[in-house]
Amino acid sequence: MLRDIVALLIDEQADMQTLPPADINSPGIDVLLLACDREQATEKASEALNRNPSLKVLTLTGNGREATVYELRPREQSLGTMSPESLVDAIREVVQC
């Protein structure tokens, strides 16, 4: 039932369309919607992102009332000139993130 409601909502949008269930590596898939239990959301989203890192995964939980978006985003931050001490500090900071 949730699937039908969401599909109808999306199909009413001029800039969106639903696709039949397919392999997530198929061309043209930008966002994967997953309806699942809150406890399973992170695991299922991680599995999908491992298979297709360019996806954005939106999980619907709580009968579709709660949503979370998952995506992989590369991040680059210049750390400037490194000394031995600043290298050790940078390693510690990266581990804490």
Low-confidence stretches: none
Please give the largest β-sheet.
3 strands, mixed
**End-to-end distance:** 39 Å
Widest beta sheet: strand line-up: 1-2-3
Please tally the β strands and state the result: 3
Helix content range of the residues, please? 25-40%
What is the count of DSSP helices, taking H or I runs of 4+ residues?
Answer: 3
Radius of gyration: 19 Å
Would you tell me the structural class of the helices and strands?
alpha+beta
Throw out a few tags for this protein.
elongated; 97 residues; alpha+beta; three-stranded mixed beta sheet
Task: Describe this structure as you would to a colleague.
It is a single chain. This protein is of the alpha+beta class. It has one domain. 38% of the residues lie in helices and 18% in strands. The chain has a 3-stranded mixed β-sheet, covered by helices on one side. The termini are far apart.
